[in-house]
Structures are given as C-alpha cells and as structure tokens.
Amino acid sequence: FGGAPKFPPSSVLEFLFARGETDMTLGTLRAMAAGGIHDQVGGGFARYAVDRTWTVPHFEKMLYDNALLARAFLHGSQVSGDEGLREVAERTLDWALREMRGPEGLFYSALDADSEGVEGKFYVWTVQELIEALGPDADAAIDWFGASDEGTFEGANVLEGRGPAPDRDARDRIRARLLEVRAQRVRPGLDDKRLTSWNALLIGALAEAGAVLEREDYLHAARSSASALLRVHRDADGRLLRTSDGERAKLNAYLEDHAFLVEALLTLYEATFEARWFEEARALADAMIERFADDERGGFFSTSADHEPLVARRKDLEDSPIPAGNSSAALGLLRLGALTGERDYEERALGVLRLLHEVAPKHPTAFGHLLQALDWVADPARPPREVALVGPDVAPLARVVRSRLRPRLVLAGGPGPDERVPLLAGREPLDERAAAYVCERFACQRPVAEPGELAALLDAPGQASR
Hints:
Elements: H1 10-18, H2 23-34, E1 48-49, E2 57-58, E3 61-62, H3 63-80, H4 83-99, E4 110-111, E5 114-115, E6 118-119, H5 127-134, H6 138-145, H7 168-182, E7 190-191, E8 194-195, H8 196-213, H9 216-232, E9 241-244, E10 249-252, H10 255-272, H11 275-292, H12 325-340, H13 343-356, H14 368-377, E11 385-390, H15 395-402, E12 409-414, E13 435-440, E14 443-444, H16 451-459
Parallel strand pairs: 11-12
Antiparallel strand pairs: 1-2, 3-4, 4-7, 5-6, 8-9, 9-10, 11-13, 13-14
Helix pairs in contact: 1-3, 1-14, 3-4, 3-8, 5-6, 8-9, 8-10, 9-10, 10-11, 10-12, 12-13, 12-14, 15-16
C-alpha cells in the first residue's frame, strides 16, 4: 500500500476481505500489528507511520482510526483463525474503553502526539528505562520489542513486536508493568469533544466484536454509547447534532454523522436483536433521505436542506481517511433494504453508486467503502442473503452465522415474529425450537433448527454468503 508516509488502509482491507483476498490483507494487518504504529504497551494505533515499514509513527491517536482498525483486525481473525489478530482487535477496543470514554458513555476524539511539548515522549523508551521498569523480564522484552541503545526515534525506542515473543503470561506481565510505569508520565493532550460520526464508528466496532467474541462488556459499552448519543446529540425537534462535551450538543449534523450512525445502529441490532436499535436506524435513514438526498442527480449532499446557507452544497465522495458520507449511506441503505424488503432504500443507494461506479474501480484505494457497497449489488444472480432467527434460544444458530466473516449478509433475530422488523414478520419457531430462515429478497428456504444444517446452507458453494 505504497511508501512513506503510510496511513492504515482500513476501508480497502475491508473491501478486499469482502472479495475473498487474504494474502495482502493479512500481511498488512500483521505488519501494522508488529510495527511501531501499534502501541505495543497500551493498545491502539497512531494515525500514520512516517516510513514505509510501519515503524515510526506520528504519535497522535484518533478515535476513528482505532474504530476502523479494530473491526479490520476482528475480520482478519475471522477469515484466518489467527488469535494474534483477535488479540489486537480486543486490545484496541480495550484501549478505547480505558482511555477514551467519557463518564456519560461517549468517546473522545483524539490523543495528541506531544506531551511536555515533545512528540512521542509519552510512548518511547530507552533501554535503561526498560531495564529499570522490568527487572528480570527486561532481556526478554528488549529482544521482543527490538530495543537498542541507539534507538529508532531521537535516541529512544519506538517499541515494536517483531522480535521473539515471550509466552503469554510474560507478555501480559511486561505490558502491565510498562503501562503502570508509563501512567506516571505526563500524558498527551486530550481532544475531548464527542463527534457523532466517530462515536458511531466505535459503536459499530464494539457491537460486532461483542457479538462475534461473545464479550458482553463490549455490547454493554455499545449500548451505553448509542443511548447517550441518541439522548445528548439531538435538538428539541429530534434532529441529530454534530458534537458535544458529553452534556450539551451543538451544530447541525452532517451526512456522515447520519450515515455512520445508521450503519452502527444496524450493527448493534444485529449484535443484540433488540428491535429498538433497528427502529432508530430506520427512522434516522428516513430523516437522512428527506434532508440530504439529491433527488435530481442522485446521491446525498454533505449538508442538510435546513443547514445554514452555503454557496454550494457539495458531496463528500472519497473514503480517506474515513468512509465518505455517501459511501456509508449507500452501504447502510443496502443493508436496511435487505432487512425491510423496501425497494426505495436500495434505489437511494444505487443513486450513489451510479455517480461513482466508473471512477471508483479505477482508484480503489480512494473508494474502499464505496466498493463494498458496489460489491453488494455487482452480481444480480448472487444477491445478498437475509437470515432470520426465531425461537426461545437463538444463540447457537447466531454463533454459526458469526463464526465466519459474511459481508454480504444481514441478520435478524428474536423469540418469534416481530412486525417491527420486516424480516421477522411471519417467521415462526419449529415445534417450539429455534429456527433459522435463510432468504434472498425475502424468498426463504425451508427453515432449519440444527446449527449444522444452517452452516451447510450458508456455506454451500455458489450461494450469496462468502
């Protein structure tokens, strides 16, 4: 993915995963995980590396990068079975929960690169500092982190994970001790504003990781953040707002705020099967269409129709460094259309794709999220699949769905038929047992009750799920 400086290509990695490519994707994830761009002590990633080997970072940590990367590493672990990638995903989310969460449940925006006016001072170590901190574990840590007397950054060491790794207990002990020592240093400055769009990205990451890894603490954090966002980041008329200090929100929300939150709420619904989140997602999508859609040319404007007057209403199109509002709107509406059977949502998404379907494949690194939406509709003979789970205990069936990365699939679930979620309407358990309905455009195969039967349906060659 190019030379220096190098930014994490999260959206491109996700598109490549959706297309079944694993060599480049997994190689990139593992290189980032072992590099200095990854905080080997506390978890999380810096904004970019100043070199082509992911060694020396620009030390600023952004919420959006870490939300996107946590999900990419989770997906990498799903397609490869690599426990190291899963661990990176968890440590990234654990960092966000530990260092970036406000008391109300929302997440701060960024940590600065500098502390005490010196870039990276909080994060780098000399060999002597490692020896003093770690005692008998120092030699193993120095070998693991590749530390030297010369250092890799202004006489000190950006810690990497490219050396021989000690056993799990030793790794945990080394990290815990260095984190304890580092906590005594002057911390980098904190950008404590809470942005709707960036919080939505993390809600989605926490929700999916919570469901896949069966981490209830992640699901709780996702629910808490979503509840706070819907409570605090709205005006008196219920319209979404852009930013807050955790108590008072201000500024009209942009397209990306709406689109990212639609995607996040759908993910939270799929993770919890709590219909509230589906209903909020659908209502927000309807508001996004009403206030941002360009009915004449297709796609969506970045600002709403009731925004303060501008010389021109522009459209946000490129997926760098985060997904564009239009790309996110397209993918969110395609998912919503699959869960509802409502053709209008799909048509609105297709309006975005018609604007960019020629340019995006020619410049894939600039349109990674949009290409995921394009992949959703690229083969009409192979439509995405809808899976509805109903019954007294759907967890074993849900575990089958989540056991693999299935980017072209939507999931609904509950104890029985639920008119609030159209995919669940009329779906009944099988003889009081949990049942799975596998469908394409709401045309469903015979329901099955055994996890093995569901796995066979989902993994059958030539089907829409990959």
